[in-house]
Write a structure and sequence with these properties.
alpha+beta, 8% strand, globular, five-stranded mixed sheet
Length: 339
């Protein structure tokens, strides 16, 4: 194997984004040397999009494999992919058990992200593996939900001190298998300083999507909040989720109203803009233009560009670090609405 580089070359970034976009058809053949396949597959792993890229490049990469080292690398990727699919299936099993008990006890809560995105946003659900189950509920119901999760065979991590109460995020692990985790959350915005300006809890979810099945607008808000308020947009996977939700928006006016009601116009416009540039998607860029473009929005787009996202892993570049942290300060220094 070649030595890993800290960032991709510009042409490699374009290849990664093209193959990470679920809507782009996989090639029948690719005239790439082994080192290019290796670079793209390594980057896809780092950015959480290996399942999508592997579905497309499995055949071409095997056809191009001439060295024993590369063939072993491809075998490890296949094994990792199979294990990831298996873990997602096991997580679905436990999610169904927990959801059933929550319904029986009349506790209002919804699973968000992972299996919901996989089933409703992706043509191939296996394109969106997940490593845990996220349950969103009112803060006042978290203790009761914890009892349900415990009754399903999970236990809290036995730490003397953690940030669970501060972050409104409680982690539960399956007894005997700590790779199976459930996160019970009172708010998807974990950092108290940011939560004073932008909050996304169960009430906000139901305001965006009153029905039992989450709407495209609600899933877009969840994807954006996850990327830019739960994290600092450090993986391409966040952009894929945002793109897949945005492509299902049928009423841009409803999207804008929901974002402004939440106080997340800055985040949604910025996320749509950078996502449209990553995947060269004119329709997503058109959705972004439905938001007013004030000074904060323009600054947000300059901070959160394609390289900001793509250079965040495996070793964050200084520019990406500064830009992502600069955007976090921009988030905290002003109102979210009408940005």
């Amino acid at each position: 194997m070649t030595k890993r580089q800290s960032s991709l070359a510009p042409d490699e970034k374009r290849l990664l984004c093209f193959h990470a976009d679920p809507r782009n058809l996989p090639p029948e053949t690719l005239d790439w040397p082994e080192r290019v396949f290796e670079r793209i597959l390594d980057a896809a792993h780092d950015h959480g999009v290996l399942a999508i890229v592997w579905r497309k490049l499995r055949g071409p990469s095997r056809a191009a494999a001439s060295s024993e080292g590369f063939r072993k690398r491809l075998a490890r990727i296949e094994e990792e992919h199979t294990l990831g699919v298996g873990q997602s299936m096991l997580l679905r099993h436990h999610a169904a058990r927990i959801s059933k008990l929550l319904r029986e006890q009349g506790i209002p809560a919804q699973i968000v992200k992972g299996p919901v995105f996989a089933d409703h946003l992706y043509e191939h659900p296996s394109d969106r593996p997940f490593t845990d189950i996220d349950i969103l509920a009112d803060v006042d119901d978290l203790r009761r939900i914890g009892s349900v999760v415990e009754a399903c065979g999970f236990e809290r991590d036995a730490k003397a001190w953690d940030n669970s109460e501060r972050y409104q995020e409680y982690k539960w692990y399956l007894r005997g298998n700590d790779s199976i985790m459930v996160e019970v959350q009172g708010n998807m915005v974990h950092y108290p300083a940011l939560r004073r300006r932008l909050s996304f809890g169960y009430a906000e979810l139901k305001a965006a999507s009153p029905g039992d099945e989450q709407s495209a607008v609600a899933m877009l808000l969840i994807a954006v909040v996850h990327a830019l308020a739960g994290h600092k947009f450090h993986r391409l996977l966040f952009a894929v989720d945002i793109a897949q939700a945005a492509r299902r928006i049928t009423d841009p006016t409803e999207m804008v109203r929901a974002a402004e009601r939440l106080g997340a116009a800055l985040e949604v416009r910025t996320a749509l803009s950078v996502t449209s540039r990553l995947f060269r998607d004119a329709e997503i860029e058109a959705l972004a233009r439905h938001f007013p473009e004030g000074p904060r929005a323009r600054l947000g787009q300059r901070l959160m560009n394609e390289d900001t996202v793509l250079d965040a892993v495996p070793k964050t570049s200084r520019a990406s670090h500064l830009r992502r942290h600069g955007f976090r300060w921009l988030q905290m220094l002003g109102p979210g609405a009408h940005s």
